[in-house]
Amino acid sequence: MGLSTLGFLYMIQAFPAQHRLKGLVIGIGLSSFAVPIARLIMPSLLEMNDWRAFYTFELGMALLAWAAVQVLRLPPSERLKLFEPLDFVTFALFAPGVALLAAVLGLGRIVWWTDAAWIGWALAGAILLLTAALMIEYDRRNPLINVRWLTGPDILRLFGAILLIRITLSEQTSGAVGFLTVVGLGPDQLHGLFLLILLAMIAGTAVSALTLNMAKLNKPIAIALGLIAVGAFIDSHATVLTRPAQLYVSQAMIAFASAMFVGPALLIGVGKVLQQGARNIISFIVMFSVLQNLGALAGSALIGTIQVVREKFHSNQLSADITSLNPEVVLRLRQLSGAYASTITDPALLNAEGVAMLTRQVTQQANILAYNDVFLIIAAAAGLGCAWVTAVHLHPRFEARRQAKRAARSMTADPPPAAAPTAD
């Protein structure tokens, strides 16, 4: 988080004054490149020396960043004393609360929500700690987190859009990757896909910066949601024969959208901060960062949970039609067990091997159908979000036209009085 903020400051300073907002958009866009880059280099690092190579690489990057900061320092800037002693109490409550919530969202679907008792205790602790932190901040004169400002309708709509997009973007980071894993592909076979995703993110960041319009910041967010909806809908027609090449178009659209929305969303909040006073910048940055990270975790948790539930449903549906009385099932079992006829001579073992292979195929097909359901749900959610953000974007224009028509009708109904005649 600290390096990201420092990187934003360097990007802003690298641009002339009239283009510094574009530098901010590029800086926030660069942070989204981490996932595809990690997917590209991780297999090679793991082959070198397992996780040690990865941590060594991470340490080297941190040292390079430290050296770069020492060589090229930021110019002097205005400093404000914003922190107070009570802020550390808030942080002591807020940080572990967010950590517990992140642990619940990140591991809940893995250990399963109702099977691990610590999930409930961690969630209860997170609610208690976060509630206490927000109660402390609510009545403070100079709060670290301005709860009253953050709960305003405009900010809530902005945070709702950010959270919705982060959840729908999990279609790429969790949905597509999970689907390709189900069909039997490994990390080294996804290099082409993640290279395309990285290029699409670069294009999305460039388009977002070049088309930046402070008067129409909701427009790119609506476009991003529309692209996610279309891309997820395309992915919802995947089959067992689908490979990365069939996902290039849809995943490129989603990657482009992921890089396109972040900058305008951040600038909407920054604009509202500047209208209300610079002190709220800390509140906005804290909540923006929390929503970015928790939104991604919530998206992965939601996708994983829905996928597991739908997989069980489809497995039951498919298994119900498999019976030894069906001649097609019997023929399929013979075909599957025939592959081992030369090595297994016992008929019972041969038949058991055929049943095991058929069960694996049924499970695979059920997983594919479950992922298709997930993609379809994400497409519907992104489509509804696109309609909502578009309505918010167009509402001021419709309201202005309505008021203009009312003014025109009132002028027609009540014409101005005629001027009194003047004597010659």
Protein architecture, described:
The chain is 79% helix and 0% strand. The protein is an all-alpha fold and 424 residues long. Helix 7 (153-168) packs antiparallel against helix 14, helix 8 (170-182) packs antiparallel against helix 11 (244-276) and helix 10 (218-235) runs antiparallel to helix 11. The mean pLDDT is 79.
What is the helix/strand order? HHHHHHHHHHHHHH
Q: How far is the N terminus from the C terminus?
A: 82 Å
Structural class: mainly alpha
Strand % is under 5%
Low-pLDDT parts are none
Question: Largest sheet at a glance?
Answer: none
Shape type: globular
Count the DSSP helices.
14
Q: Let me know the number of strands.
A: 0
Mean pLDDT: 79
Radius of gyration: 28 Å
> Helix fraction?
over 70%
Helices, strands, pairings?
Blueprint: H1 2-14, H2 20-30, H3 34-71, H4 85-111, H5 117-138, H6 147-150, H7 153-168, H8 170-182, H9 191-210, H10 218-235, H11 244-276, H12 281-320, H13 327-338, H14 347-413
Helix pairs in contact: 1-2, 2-9, 2-11, 3-9, 4-5, 4-12, 7-11, 7-12, 7-14, 8-11, 8-12, 8-14, 9-11, 10-11, 10-14, 12-14, 13-14
